[in-house]
Write a structure and sequence with these properties.
mainly alpha; two-stranded antiparallel ribbon; two-stranded antiparallel sheet; 1% strand; calmodulin binding; Unconventional myosin-Va isoform X4; Myo5a/b_dom
C-alpha cells in the first residue's frame, strides 16, 4: 500500500513507521473509518474504496503530467521569444550605430569651432589675467607672511594645550580604569563565592553516595586536561602580547624621530620670518597705493550690489510663484494618493471576502459530494445483497442445482475487502449473466423491466453529456470574449500612459531649456562685469531657483503618474466587474453604484480623457513607445506606484484558478456519481424505481454480505504461524 499510494502522500507525512504513515494518509483521504481496517500485515477495505483511492492516484498523476507539459511549453515559448528578441536587438544595434556616427561627426565639427573660439578668448583673458596677477602677488606675499606668523603662534599654543590635555586625560582614564577594575573584581568575587557555596552543597550531597568515588577519578582527569589547555592558551596570549609591545615600541620610536624633524623645520621657518621682517617697511608704501585702488573697487561694488538687489527681488518673486504652484501640485498629489489608497483597500477587502466565501462553499460542496459518494457505495452494496437474495429465491423455486451463497454476518467477512475494484466488478458481471440464464426460462417480465430501465438511463446519460458539452462551449466563448475585452482595455491603457509620458518629456525639455537660457544670461552678465556671481546673495538665490525648479518637475511627474495609475485601476476594476457578472451579478451592481458615487474619481477620469483627445498628443507613436520604455527604466518609483495594479492582477488570477478548480471538481463528481448510478441501476430489482434508489434512507451499519469462495495465498510471518492455526481451527 505504501509503494502504490506514495503519490498521495506529502513529504512531511512520510514517517519511519510505514503503518503509522498509511494510517495518517487514510484518515485524510477516507473520512469514514468504517470503510477500512488495519490488519497485521495488510489493510482491508470495503467494496469501492480501492477504486476511490485509484481515482485519487490517477488524478494526482494527471496533474503531474499537466505540470510537465506546462513547463515544456513554457521553455519552447521562452526560446522562441529569445530568438525574436536577439533579432530585434541586432536591428536596434545597427540603427543606433548609424545614429551614433552621425552624432559623432556633428560633435567633431562643433568641437573644432569651440577650440578656435577657446584659443582666441584665452589670449585675451591671459593678458588681462597677467595684469591682475602681478598686482595680486604683491598683496598675497604680505598677507601670507602675516598669516604664517599667526598660524605658527596658533600651532604652538595648540601643541602645548594638547600636551596638557593628554596628561590630564591619561590620569583621568587610569583613575576610571582602576575604579572599574576594582568593581569588576569585587563583583566576580561575590559571584564566585555564591557559586562556590552552591558547589560545596552539591559536593557534600555527592560525598554521601557511593557513586561519587567512582566519578571522582574521571572528574580529576578532565580537570587536569582543562588546566593544561588553559596553560597553553595563556602561553599563547603572553607571546601575542609581547609581540604587540615590541610593535608599539618601534612605532613610538619612529613617531618621536618624526616630531624631532618637525621641530627643527619649524625653527628654520622662524629664522626665515625674522629675516623677511625687514622687508615690511618697503612694502608699506605699496600697501597705501593698494588701499586707494581698494576704495575705487568698493565704489564699483556698491553699484553692482544695487543691480544685484533689483535682480534678487525679481528672482524672489519668481521663486514665490513657483512655490505656490508647487503647493497646489502637492495638495493634488495628496488627494490622488488618498483616493487610490481608499479604492485599493475597498477592492482588496471585497476580493478577500469573495475568495473566502467561495473557498468555504467549495469545501462544503466537496464534503457533501464525498458523503454522497459514500452513501451511494453503501446503497450499491445493499442492492447487491438484495439481488443475491432474489437470485437464491429464484434458484430454489426452480429447483435448479446451482451452488448457493451463504449469508453471514458482516463480522465474519473481514477478508472480503482484499478484492480490488476490478475483481468485484467481474463477479458482478458473472452474477448478472447467471441471473439472465435463470430468468430466461422462468420470468421474462423482470428482464423486460430491466432492459427498459437500462435504455432510460442511457438516454438520460446522453442528454446530460450533451448539456455538459453545451455548457463548456458557452464558457469557452465567454472566456474568449473576456480576454479580447481585457486586451483591448490594456492596449488603451498603454496608449494613454505613453501619451502622458510624451507630455511630461516635452514639459521637462521646455523647463530645462528656460533654465539653461537663464544661466547663460547670468554667466554672460558676470563675464561683462555687470553681475556678481561670487557674492553669497547671488549663490543663495540661484540655489533656491534650482531647488524650486527640480521640485516642480518632481511634483509634475508624480501627479501625472498618479493620474494614469488612477485611470488604469478604474479600467481594471471595470473589467473585473464585467467578468464577475457570470457568477455574481449582485456584486457587479454594487460596484457600479460605488463608482457612480465617487464624484472625484469620475471628474479626474473625464479630465484625463479630454487631455487624451487633444490633437498634440496624437503624433509620433514610435517615439512615444521609446520614451515610455526609457521612463520606466529610469524611474523606480513608478514600479512602487504600480504595486496596487499588480495586486489586482494577482487576485484576478487566483480567482480564475479557483473557478477552474471548482468546475473541474464538479465535473468529476458528476461523472463519478453517474457511473455509480449506472452500476447500481443495472442490478436493482424490477420493483425498485430510480427515485427510490436516491430517496430511500441509508443504513450504513451492519450491511449483510454474501460469502465468497476465495482462492489464493496468504502472506504472514514465521512467528505468526501458531496464532493463525489457533484462529483457523475452532
Amino acid at each position: 500500500f505504501f509503494s502504490s499510494y506514495r503519490v498521495l502522500m506529502k513529504q512531511k507525512d512520510v514517517l519511519p513507521d510505514k503503518k503509522l504513515t498509511c494510517k495518517n494518509v487514510l484518515e485524510k483521504l477516507v473520512q469514514d473509518q468504517d470503510k477500512y481496517q488495519f490488519g497485521k500485515t495488510k489493510i482491508f477495505f470495503r467494496a469501492g474504496q480501492v477504486a476511490y483511492l485509484e481515482k485519487l492516484r490517477a488524478d494526482k498523476l494527471r496533474a503531474a503530467c499537466i505540470r510537465i507539459q506546462k513547463t515544456i511549453r513554457c521553455w519552447l515559448a521562452r526560446k522562441k521569444y529569445l530568438r525574436k528578441r536577439s533579432a530585434a536587438i541586432t536591428i536596434q544595434r545597427f540603427t543606433r550605430g548609424y545614429q551614433a556616427r552621425c552624432l559623432a561627426k556633428f560633435m567633431r565639427r562643433t568641437q573644432a569651432a569651440t577650440i578656435i573660439q577657446k584659443y582666441q578668448r584665452m589670449y585675451v583673458e591671459r593678458k588681462r589675467y597677467r595684469q591682475k596677477q602681478a598686482a595680486a602677488l604683491v598683496m598675497q606675499t604680505i598677507l601670507r607672511a602675516y598669516m604664517a606668523r599667526q598660524k605658527y603662534q596658533a600651532l604652538l599654543r595648540e601643541h602645548k594645550a594638547v600636551i596638557i590635555q593628554k596628561h590630564i586625560r591619561g590620569w583621568l582614564a587610569r583613575c576610571w580604569y582602576k575604579r572599574c577594575l576594582y568593581s569588576i573584581v569585587y563583583l566576580q568575587c561575590c559571584i564566585r563565592r555564591m557559586r562556590a557555596r552552591r558547589e560545596l552543597k552539591k559536593l557534600k550531597i555527592e560525598a554521601r553516595s557511593v557513586e561519587h568515588f567512582k566519578k571522582l577519578n574521571k572528574g580529576m582527569e578532565n580537570k587536569i586536561m582543562q588546566l593544561q589547555r588553559k596553560i597553553d592558551e595563556q602561553n599563547k596570549e603572553n607571546r601575542s602580547i609581547s609581540e604587540r609591545l615590541i610593535g608599539l615600541e618601534s612605532s613610538y620610536s619612529t613617531e618621536s624621530e618624526r616630531m624631532r624633524g618637525e621641530l627643527s623645520r619649524l625653527r628654520g621657518v622662524e629664522e626665515d620670518a625674522k629675516n623677511k621682517s625687514n622687508q615690511v617697511v618697503s612694502l608699506q608704501d605699496e600697501l597705501e597705493r593698494l588701499r586707494k585702488e581698494l576704495s575705487a573697487t568698493q565704489q564699483e561694488k556698491k553699484t553692482i550690489e544695487d543691480w544685484a538687489q533689483t535682480y534678487r527681488d525679481e528672482m524672489e518673486k519668481m521663486v514665490s510663484e513657483l512655490k505656490d504652484q508647487n503647493g497646489m501640485l502637492k495638495t493634488e498629489k495628496d488627494d490622488l494618493n488618498r483616493l487610490i489608497q481608499e479604492q485599493s483597500q475597498q477592492m482588496t477587502e471585497k476580493m478577500a471576502r469573495a475568495i473566502a466565501e467561495e473557498t468555504q462553499q467549495l469545501e462544503t460542496d466537496l464534503n457533501e459530494e464525498r458523503s454522497r459518494y459514500q452513501n451511494l457505495l453503501t446503497e450499491h452494496l445493499r442492492l447487491e445483497e438484495k439481488y443475491d437474495d432474489l437470485k437464491e429465491e429464484m434458484a430454489l423455486s426452480s429447483n435448479v442445482s446451482k451452488p448457493g451463497h451463504r449469508r453471514t454476518d458482516s463480522t465474519h467477512s473481514s477478508n472480503e475487502s482484499e478484492y480490488t475494484y476490478n475483481s468485484e466488478y467481474a463477479e458482478l458481471e458473472e452474477g448478472s449473466r447467471a441471473a439472465e440464464d435463470v430468468t430466461r426460462g422462468i420470468d421474462t417480465s423482470l428482464t423486460l423491466k430491466l432492459q427498459k430501465r437500462l435504455t432510460e438511463l442511457e438516454q438520460e446519460k446522453q442528454s446530460l453529456r450533451n448539456e455538459l458539452e453545451n455548457k463548456e462551449e458557452q464558457f469557452q466563448r465567454a472566456r474568449a470574449r473576456d480576454d479580447a475585452e481585457f486586451k483591448k482595455a490594456r492596449g488603451a491603457e498603454l496608449e494613454y500612459e505613453s501619451l502622458k509620458r510624451q507630455e511630461l518629456e516635452s514639459e521637462n525639455k521646455k523647463l530645462k531649456h528656460d533654465l539653461a537660457e537663464m544661466r547663460q544670461s547670468l554667466l554672460g552678465d558676470a563675464a561683462t562685469g555687470a553681475g556678481a556671481p561670487g557674492s553669497p546673495a547671488y549663490k543663495v538665490l540661484l540655489d533656491q531657483l534650482n531647488a524650486s525648479c527640480e521640485e516642480l518637475e518632481v511634483r509634475k511627474e508624480e501627479v501625472l503618474i498618479l493620474r494614469s495609475q488612477l485611470v488604469s485601476q478604474k479600467e481594471a476594476m471595470h473589467h473585473k466587474d464585467e467578468k464577475e457578472t457570470m457568477t455574481e451579478p449582485s456584486v457587479f451592481v454594487e460596484d457600479v453604484s460605488k463608482l457612480k458615487d465617487a464624484d472625484e474619481l469620475k471628474q479626474a477620469y473625464i479630465g484625463l480623457k479630454d487631455t487624451n483627445r487633444s490633437p498634440r498628443f496624437m503624433r509620433k507613436p514610435l517615439e512615444v513607445n521609446d520614451l515610455l520604455s526609457r521612463l520606466r527604466s529610469a524611474a523606480p518609483d513608478f514600479h512602487k506606484l504600480n504595486e496596487d495594479g499588480e495586486l489586482w492582477l494577482d487576485l484576478m488570477e487566483q480567482l480564475e484558478k479557483q473557478d477552474r478548480t471548482i468546475r473541474k471538481l464538479k465535473k468529476q463528481l458528476k461523472v463519478y456519481s453517474k457511473r455509480i448510478g449506472e452500476m447500481g441501476a443495472g442490478q436493482t430489482e424490477g420493483q425498485t424505481s430510480p427515485g427510490q434508489v436516491v430517496d430511500e434512507p441509508i443504513h450504513p451499519v451492519n450491511i449483510p454480505r454474501r460469502e465468497k469462495d476465495f482462492q489464493g495465498m496468504l502472506e504472514y510471518k514465521k512467528e505468526d504461524e501458531l496464532k493463525l492455526v489457533k484462529n483457523l481451527i475452532l
